[in-house]
Specification:
The protein has about 300 residues and is α+β, with helices and mostly antiparallel strands. It has helices at about 5-10, 20-35, 40-55, 60-140, 165-175, 200-210, 230-260, 270-280, 285-300, and strands at about 155, 180-185, 190-195, 220-225. It has a 4-stranded antiparallel sheet, with helices on both faces. Strand 2 and strand 3 (about 190-195) form a beta hairpin. Helix 2 packs antiparallel against helix 3 and helix 6 packs antiparallel against helix 9. The chain is rod-shaped.
Length: about 300
């Protein structure tokens, strides 16, 4: 369907223009494009359109019908512009969100790379420090040297909305309980950090005290950064299990001897000086004693 000509726009008039304004506008424009003065084909077509516009707008009935169509057309154009504006705004918003998402992804990747680089640096420093301590022992001891990734590293997590720790805050907080060697806040996961302690004893102290020490109650979780204890700690945990098994076996032998003869297998003095003291040693102290003995051996 061919679109109807906008006669008001052609004459440069508003829809409220009077007959006099219509005639004056037609005269001014028609003089410029009259075929006698302007031989251009385009001028002839324009002159014909101007004549049609004047004839229609000066006829009250035809103008009334035309005005209704003109207003309806203008309303449609207005709505279309509004829709185009909304679509354009929606498109711009979508593009902005995509751009923000890409920028956030880039920042996240950079933070992850920075965190992994910092963690690698801490591991390298810890491995170098331990290698220096174990270098002289390696030629004399039959014990295997721990793997480089077996660090005294512990991972801490806390509620960031409740505690906004800086590296110095964490250092001061944890160093009051155990000696901290180095630490790094996680850039990728806010509210977490990797902490490397001076010795495995310090790291083990933190792990075992997480549910009892009031300072450590600020953390949601505390665990070995590698996901499992270092080899030395596993050995000592196994040693503690063997100690408990030995205690249970000795206690069972003592009970059987008492039931069979009606008298204890050992004298009262022997029982109080050996079995009683052995069973009363706290598990935590036994492990700490073993760790200290092993650490002293490593530093000799």
């Amino acid at each position: 369907m061919e679109e109807e000509v906008n006669y008001y726009e052609l004459l440069g008039l508003e829809i409220t223009a009077s007959e006099k304004e219509i005639k004056n506008a037609y005269r001014k424009k028609a003089l410029k494009v009259h075929p006698d003065k302007n031989p251009s084909p385009d001028a002839a077509r324009l002159f014909h359109a101007l004549t049609q516009a004047q004839d229609l707008l000066l006829d009250p009935k035809k103008r009334s019908e035309y005005d209704q169509r003109h207003r309806a057309r203008q309303e449609r154009l207005k709505k279309k512009k509004e829709m185009d504006s909304k679509r354009r705004q929606a498109q711009e918003e979508l593009e902005r969100r995509e751009k923000d998402a890409k920028r956030a992804k880039t920042e996240q990747d950079q933070a992850k790379a920075q965190y992994e680089a910092e963690l690698a640096r801490l591991r390298e420093e810890g491995a170098k420090r331990r290698q220096e301590n174990w270098s002289t022992e390696a030629t004399e001891s039959t014990e295997p040297v721990p793997e480089e990734n077996e660090l005294d590293a512990v991972k801490f997590k806390w509620k960031r909305k409740k505690y906004d720790f800086s590296e110095q805050d964490l250092f001061d907080l944890l160093n009051s309980i155990a000696e901290v060697d180095s630490l790094a806040l996680s850039e990728k996961k806010k509210g977490s950090a990797i902490v490397i302690f001076k010795t495995v004893v310090d790291a083990y102290n933190i792990i075992t005290k997480k549910d009892t020490h009031p300072t450590l109650s600020k953390f949601e979780s505390i665990y070995w950064a590698t996901g499992k204890p270092p080899t030395i700690v596993e050995k000592m945990i196994r040693a503690e299990e063997l100690k408990k098994e030995a205690q249970a076996a000795l206690y069972g032998t003592y009970n059987r001897s008492t039931v069979a003869s009606g008298k204890p297998l050992f004298s009262t003095v022997s029982q109080s000086s050996f079995f009683k003291n052995l069973s009363n040693i706290p598990t935590f102290q036994v492990i700490i004693i073993i760790i200290h003995i092993y650490s002293r051996k490593c530093n000799m």
